[in-house]
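Example 9 (inverse folding). The structure is encoded as follows.
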């Protein structure tokens, strides 16, 4: 039942925010998946430390 699911998500968001957890609340009723993904990506905080992964050399696998 979608209405019940929406109510449960709203309750979860209220509970998290009451505990000072940041929550993004979206109404996706008329949004495309791409629009939702873009909204979520835009809401993510910038990383405080740039990620720099150094490539590790491939270890040869023996027979």
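The amino acid assigned to each position is listed next.
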């Amino acid at each position: 039942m979608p209405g019940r699911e929406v109510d449960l998500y709203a309750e979860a968001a209220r509970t998290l925010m009451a505990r000072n957890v940041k929550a993004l609340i979206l109404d996706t009723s008329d949004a495309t998946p791409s629009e939702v993904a873009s909204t979520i990506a835009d809401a993510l905080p910038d990383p405080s430390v740039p990620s720099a992964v150094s490539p590790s050399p491939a270890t040869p696998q023996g027979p």
